Amino acid sequence: MPLLQLDLRAANQHLVGVCLSHTPSHPTLRLSLPAWTPGSYLIRDYVRQLESLRITQQGMPLENRRTSPSSWEVELQNLEPLEIHYQLVATELSVRTCHLTADHGFLALAAVAVQIEGERWNTHGLQLQLPAGWEPFVPLPEQADGSKVGSGWIAANTWIAADFDQLIDTPIEVGPHNAHGFSVAAVPHRWVTWGRTLAGEDFITADPHWLADVERVCLACCALMGVERPAADHYLFVLHLSEKGYGGLEHDSSTVLHYSRKALAKGDGRRKLLQLVAHEYLHQWNVRRLRPAELSPYRYGDAVVIPTLWFAEGVTSYVDQLLPYAAGITTAESVLEDLGADLSRYLLSPGRAVQSLLESSQESWVKLYKSDAYSPNSQISYYLKGAVLALVLDLLLRRHGASLTQVLQNLWQSHGRWGRGYHESDLVEAFAYFHSPLSTLLPEWLRSQSEPPLHELLADVGLELTPETDNHLDLGASVELKAGQLWVQRVNRQGPASQAGLMVGDELVALDAERLCHPEDLGPLLDLKYSGHQRQLLISRDGLMRNLTIRPANPAIKAWTLGLVASQTGQTSDQRNRWLGLQPA
Ligand SMILES: [Zn+2]
Fold this sequence. Notes:
Layout: E1 3-10, E2 15-22, E3 28-32, E4 50-57, E5 60-62, E6 65-68, E7 71-75, E8 82-89, E9 99-100, E10 105-108, E11 115-116, E12 124-129, E13 135-137, E14 158-161, H1 164-168, E15 171-175, E16 179-184, E17 187-194, H2 203-206, H3 210-225, E18 235-242, E19 247-250, E20 254-260, H4 261-265, H5 269-282, H6 309-326, H7 332-347, H8 357-362, H9 375-378, H10 384-399, H11 404-414, H12 424-432, H13 438-447, H14 454-460, E21 463-469, E22 477-482, E23 485-491, H15 496-500, E24 507-511, E25 514-515, H16 523-526, E26 535-541, E27 544-550, E28 557-564, H17 570-580
Parallel strand pairs: 1-12, 17-18, 18-20
Antiparallel strand pairs: 1-2, 2-8, 3-7, 3-11, 4-5, 4-8, 6-7, 9-10, 10-15, 12-14, 13-15, 16-17, 19-20, 21-28, 22-23, 23-24, 24-25, 24-26, 26-27
Zinc ion binds near residues 283, 313 and 316.
């Protein structure tokens, strides 16, 4: 059994010492470090944080050959036990990277553990050495028998992963923290937080109802999937409360949540965190066990095209807003507010006219995770448009007496619970089972930029989207003030700024010979009374001045608001409540 020993005592140096012990069964030893981690579709080249790799056998160093930036090969003279040593720089705080400081340690094991060729499906052991007073939080079964534990390693800290996949599906949080236990349908759950609230309090102490609410959300996830209990037989929530950032990463038996203290202190902060909990917990089924065929098995070295990410992330993003309401925690008004904000963001995304949902899913590796200031012009997130499509599909199915819930439950029974990966055709079949025209409509909505009938379907549940227009002319660009200068931050491909030739990064120096120092100085350019006027802009680009002519356009839509249709029947409001509560149509 390969044994991975991690030494986290050099916290101030942010260095993780790694020793992987292994008894080879083949004269050629091949090692590779994953290039990415499931759930986050970007080649991260974790090897950039790895240093000083050496391999020893009975204390003698062995020569290794680098076969790629992330892989090594060694020709062995004998099959005696050997050790692979290296260290990792743990300075990147996110749910998918490693962070070790005097306050805590967090390890995403895909960034830590090298895979030994031929050992992937074998049991792996894990041991930790921690600074004094620190506790480990590891979502793996612990080995009761400490007999295999070497000197200096704490017997209580030995965990067993069924295979390499389970090993690197294990996020490790360590620190002077306390975990809080609770149960979901008699399955043991733990919650551990690193960081404190904005008021400096312990998160769970400051919010005594939190764990009970999380339990209710977890039960709502089980109900949505049509199961009595969670898919995992134990579960760990890790929350990082930090200054900024937002995100989560799903695992089979755990999740890591990254949330900002400031966001938590806001009026909707608790609700949004509860949605993140719902999102990641539902991934326990949707994407982890009910998984796209391209991810079965995972190929840790390559970017794999996954055409159905819109389902894995879009459906999860859609229902994460409904689940806390279905659990009886949030109000219908707040769900409509959050849903409306997403729909507005979607309708204001110019990229939806360029990239299809299928392309967005297929291009995740090179676009969504690598977006820049120009991306909104040509990209639409498969999370966002996927959620809009999930809403459309749910409402359309409800018109025909079914719902998205039934599709999810059927897919769980036909694929997820058996570990059968799904293809797009399986998803289309599952939807078309309840409404046969979807066998052609759904592939078309995935492949084209044509809009599914969103407004019409919202009317079924007594809702309408109303545009809100700006009260000034439109530049088709956004501008930020930095160091007393105005810089172009975004340029809409179809707008006046683009037609005038402005680029992201241009400095706006003067408007009709008047110096520009503050965003308010653009007032005369945007004033409605100058509609149709042509203006001169002096800009600086790459250190050179140039004059551009710009004619601002009529006011643009700045937001869409989701609201109740003025007159509606009691039946409509009943339908709306059942829909929001994930109840049968
Ligand atoms: Zn997700």
